[in-house]
Specification:
Number of helices: 4
Bound molecules: heme C
Number of domains: 1
Oligomer: single chain
Distance between the termini: 21 Å
Number of strands: 0
Shape: globular
Strand content: under 5%
Helix content: 40-55%
Structural class: mainly alpha
Order of helices and strands: HHHH
């Protein structure tokens, strides 16, 4: 998937709110098992079509911030930074 962004990919300030729970490297939260680790960086790269709506609308039943208040460019920038995070 090709998207354009203003983000410098490594430092996008609005993504700091995500780091509270997910960590600055995205690895504070493992969505799967220790043997088959999946972090934000992993899912954003492997499955962008599922990850991007989750960032905008959040998964049901998950205690996560809804960032739908941000404009589209901010969300694209956050998603770009997510893709730049460590995958393993
Ligand atoms: C208050 C804590 C909290 C904050 C802040 C938070 N998250 Fe989450 N996030 C969660 C939890 C809990 C889950 C669900 C984890 C699971 O399913 O095991 C989750 C899941 C996700 C998923 C889905 C992973 C999957 O299962 O495919 C993505 C993507 C994600 N977060 C991105 C973000 C982004 C981007 C931000 C900042 C805009 C953010 N999160 C901020 C707690 C948070």
């Amino acid at each position: 998937m090709k998207i354009s962004t203003n983000a410098s990919a490594v430092e996008y300030p609005n993504a700091d709110c995500c780091a509270v729970c997910h960590g600055f490297d995205g690895k504070a939260m493992n969505f799967k098992t220790p043997e088959n680790a999946k972090y934000i960086g992993t899912v954003a790269k492997e499955n962008p079509q599922e990850t991007s709506p989750k960032i905008i609308a959040v998964q049901l039943g998950v205690p996560m911030v809804v960032v739908g208040v941000l404009d589209t460019q901010d969300l694209v920038d956050i998603f770009t930074q997510a893709q730049a995070l460590s995958q393993r």
